[in-house]
Amino acid sequence: MRQIMLCLAALLAALLLLYAGLNVAERGVHELLALERPVAAFTLRRGLEGRFEITFGGSSYLVNFGQIVERLKAWGAQLSLTF
Q: In 3D, which of 50, 54, 78 has the Cα closest to residue 64?
């Protein structure tokens, strides 16, 4: 159990370090280029109807988690019928 917790802590620390590095790098580029758009190395915003907007490296992607969950449930139901 302790090894699992250590692995999860190491993974979390690595992700936090990556996130911090991306934010610092993007703020530096933002200052150098004097861009008008907000700094967004990695952001997650919740929208309407279970949709999320993920911004990574300046590119935005819309993800509909509600639809993904519905499809996974349908896929799980199909698999249980075939077995």
A: 50
pTM metric for this prediction? 0.44
Name every residue whose Cβ is closer than 8 Å to that of residue 25 and which is 6 or more positions away in sequence. 41
Distance in angstroms (rounded) separating the CA atoms of residues 43 and 60: 9
pLDDT digits (tens, 9 = 90+) for 6-19: 889 999 999 889 88
Question: Which residue, 22, 61, 62, is CA-closest to 39?
Answer: 22
Identify which of 57, 54, 56 has the alpha carbon closest to the alpha carbon of residue 45: 54
CA dihedral 9, 16, 53, 45 (to 10 degrees): 90
CA distance 71 to 65: 10
Q: Which residues of 30-44 are buried (b: 16+ CB within 10 A; e: fewer)?
A: beeeeeeeeebbeee
